Task: inverse folding
DNA sequence: ATGCCTCAGCTCCTGAGA
């Protein structure tokens, strides 16, 4: 079973690339972030034709997430139960016995800002909920655009970007607390090339210079850890003509 | 240097992303 996450920065612009990518990478589950469209505009038809069941949690202009799966997802939940939020950031469902949570974590803009405070509150809300989800669903995958790096290895310039957004101790504390619930960074379960990133700034030739950060993650629960056979970042679509600034991340699990 | 890209929208500029 293969599951993937991809922040596509506007599904309106990127739909052809998503469909092409699914043809080349027929994963069982794909979660998308930053649809930047309302549910009425979501291209259900195109995904049906591609062989996917789709659930959408959209929003005008910003945010918006979707859950695509080859077999139907059940018990679909939108956003974080118990955490009041105006923004469409989370969509969850059970696919083939695995609880899948797709999330677009807040950016946070800059430490000390209102948006940073919101990010910290959101992270606490997410953690409180995921803790209970893990009890109900031991086989759980939490994946998406976390907008947080784990450590210096995830940052192209850890000195210059020290204490800036995605690299602060506060953000990393919350990411660590999430992991401490009984989750594992699937990417680091395997040897990986140095300077591996999932996002590169559009500006200043960020991608060709490999000036990026690893901020898109797939966390797997204790119950799934031993069944993970691989995790990769696919940089191919970042080379497209009008790419998203993020690359998809894929994890493979042994079928159980 | 608060911009360099990219995207959405009450679109010819602004806010947001990261």
Result:
């Amino acid at each position: 079973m293969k599951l993937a996450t991809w922040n596509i920065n506007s599904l309106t612009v990127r739909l052809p690339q998503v469909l092409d990518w699914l043809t080349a990478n027929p994963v069982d589950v794909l979660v998308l972030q930053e649809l930047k469209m309302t549910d009425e505009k979501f291209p259900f038809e195109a995904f049906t034709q591609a062989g996917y069941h789709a659930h959408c949690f959209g929003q005008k202009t910003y945010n918006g997430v979707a859950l695509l799966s080859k077999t139907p997802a059940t018990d679909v939940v939108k956003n974080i139960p118990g955490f009041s939020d105006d923004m469409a950031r989370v969509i969850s469902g059970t696919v083939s016995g695995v609880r899948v949570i797709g999330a677009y974590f807040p950016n946070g803009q800059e430490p000390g800002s209102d948006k940073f405070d919101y990010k910290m509150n959101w992270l606490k809300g997410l953690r409180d909920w995921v803790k209970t989800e893990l009890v109900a669903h031991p086989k759980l995958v939490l994946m998406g655009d976390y907008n947080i790096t784990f450590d210096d290895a995830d940052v192209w310039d850890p000195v210059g970007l020290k204490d800036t957004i995605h690299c602060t101790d506060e953000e990393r504390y919350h990411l660590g607390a999430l992991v401490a619930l009984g989750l594992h960074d699937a990417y680091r379960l395997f040897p990986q090339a140095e300077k591996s990133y999932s996002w590169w700034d559009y500006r200043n030739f960020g991608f060709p210079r490999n000036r990026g950060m690893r901020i898109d993650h797939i966390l797997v629960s204790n119950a799934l850890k031993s069944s993970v056979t691989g995790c990769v970042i696919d940089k191919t679509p970042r080379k497209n003509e009008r790419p998203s600034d993020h690359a998809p991340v894929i994890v493979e699990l042994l079928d159980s």
In short: The longest helix of chain A spans residues 114-136. The mean pLDDT of chain A is 97. Residues 9-10, 12-13, 34, 36-37, 60-62, 107-109, 115, 147, 164-166, 199, 201-206, 213, 215, 242, 244-245 of chain A lie near DNA strand B (CB under 10 Å from a C1'). The two ends of chain A are 9 Å apart (CA to CA).
